[in-house]
């Protein structure tokens, strides 16, 4: 059974996931890509159904391998990340060898910038003494995509970088 041998090789090579399994909704969105992934391993639809029924652990491992491949592609293409909390915004520019950070902190307990009202307050009060700006850069570890993924796990979202660019220009003007 050639398929069993290929599945065993994949299972041995990918015992532990590097990132995280895609959600059911994400897998449904990537249904065609998953079919193509199985096809690269010469797994037909009938064989996949058999694997899911008779070897669910192997099916789970295949989904994990596919998830890691998808994450690897997404993380490689990501250029900006944003993370909002009650009193801070962290904006990351993901360069080739390092990531740059612009952080905005609001030192006013009555303002929650995750709400529409709080965000509007910030936009209208950028030069208020309660608003602080920080910037920094950090080289990646040996695995830059894993560094990026950890930030996403902490709540960041991949963006097109408009907010990063806006604050980058603002900080440049302020200096």
Secondary structure topology:
Layout: H1 2-13, H2 24-29, H3 31-40, H4 45-54, H5 56-77, E1 80-84, E2 88-94, E3 98-106, H6 116-124, E4 131-139, H7 144-153, E5 157-159, H8 162-174
Short description:
The protein has helices at 2-13, 24-29, 31-40, 45-54, 56-77, 116-124, 144-153, 162-174; strands at residues 80-84, 88-94, 98-106, 131-139, 157-159. The protein is of the alpha+beta class.
Which terms summarize this structure?
alpha+beta; 175 residues; 19% strand; single chain
Describe this structure in words.
By secondary structure, the protein is of the alpha+beta class. The chain folds into two domains: 2-77, no CATH class; 80-174, no CATH class. The protein contains eight helices and five strands. A hairpin with a 3-residue loop joins strand 2 and strand 3. Helix 1 (2-13) packs across helix 5, helix 4 (45-54) crosses helix 5 (56-77) and helix 5 (56-77) crosses helix 7 (144-153). It is elongated, with a radius of gyration of 22 Å. The N and C termini lie far apart (67 Å). The model is unreliable at 5-9 (pLDDT under 50).
């Amino acid at each position: 059974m050639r398929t069993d041998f290929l599945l065993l090789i994949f299972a041995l090579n990918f015992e532990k996931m590097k990132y995280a399994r895609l959600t059911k909704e994400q897998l449904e969105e990537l249904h065609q890509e998953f079919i193509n992934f199985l096809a690269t391993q010469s797994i037909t639809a009938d064989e996949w159904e058999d694997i899911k029924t008779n070897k669910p652990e192997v099916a789970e491992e295949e989904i994990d391998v596919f998830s890691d491949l998808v994450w690897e592609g997404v993380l490689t293409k990501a250029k900006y990340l944003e993370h909002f909390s009650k009193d801070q915004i962290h904006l990351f520019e993901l360069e080739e060898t390092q990531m740059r950070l612009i952080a905005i902190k609001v030192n006013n307990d009555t303002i929650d910038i995750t709400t529409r009202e709080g965000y509007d307050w910030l936009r209208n009060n950028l030069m208020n003494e309660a608003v602080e700006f920080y910037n920094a850069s950090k080289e990646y570890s040996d695995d830059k995509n894993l560094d990026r993924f950890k930030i996403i796990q902490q709540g960041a979202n991949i963006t097109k970088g408009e907010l990063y660019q806006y604050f980058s220009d603002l900080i440049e003007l302020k200096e």
